[in-house]
Write a structure and sequence with these properties.
The chain is mostly helical. It folds into two domains: 1-54; 56-90. The protein has helices at 2-53, 57-88. The longest helix has 52 residues, at 2-53. It is rod-shaped. The mean pLDDT is 78.
Amino acid sequence: MQSACATLGAMKIFAIAVGALLLSGCVVGSIASTAVDVATLPVKAASKTYDLATTSQAEADQKRGRELRKEEERRGREARAMADRCRKGRALPTDICG
């Protein structure tokens, strides 16, 4: 009986040792993954800040296009208002009526 108990005890110790080795790989992998995340976090934050602080050429072009469209809309409204005043005979001194 003692040999059977000794064998079971040895198997338990072996199973615990194997389990510990398998779990330690998970823990090491977790720690390594966390270390990589912590190391890359400042780089990602700096990159995001730089992106927010700078304007790309495409963004600048879009902004300029919006400004031009708004200016054209304003000029169109002024031209229609001037034409309406000229048609009604209420032209301003600055209006060009033909």
